[in-house]
Amino acid sequence: MAIPTDPPIEQLGFDEALAELQRTVAELEAGGQPLERALALHERGAALMERCNRLLTDAQLRVQQLVAQAGTLKAVDVRPEDAQEARDPADA
Q1: Per-position b or e across 4-18, b if 16+ CB within 10 A of its CB
Q2: Does the pLDDT value for residue 18 go beyond 90?
Q3: Which value, in Å, is the radius of gyration of the alpha carbons in the chain?
Q4: Are 12 and 20 in contact (CB under 8 A)?
Q5: In a domain, 89, yes or no
């Protein structure tokens, strides 16, 4: 049972979902809520945790793909003092 004023979880970015999850946990830890409110907070917190996990998994897969693509490129160590300006072939 979602709290009516809460934004849809699927629209939250990672930072927003994590911040809301932290607030939800803090409210649950503080106690004193009626049972229905505590249940709603718990359900939303579980959904927020799932959203954060899904976003982290997606990010991890993206990083793995980038690393795999970078493996086909050759890394070159260039120090700024060794760099040469690119010349325009038309100037040659």
Answers
A1: eeeeebeebeeeebb
A2: yes
A3: 24
A4: yes
A5: no
Residue 41 within any structural domain of the chain = yes
Give the C-alpha distances (Å, rounded to integers) separating 29 from 9, 26, 41: 21, 5, 11
C-alpha distances out from residue 14 to 9, 56, 60, 66, 71, Å: 10, 8, 13, 20, 28
From residue 50, alpha-carbon distances to 26, 35, 47 in Å are 18, 23, 5
How many residues belong to the chain?
A: 92
Q: For tokens 């907070």, what's the residue?
A: 41
Number of structural domains in the chain: 1
Query: Hey, CA dihedral for 66, 69, 71, 76, is it positive or negative?
Result: negative
Looking at the predicted structure, is the pLDDT value of residue 87 above 70? no
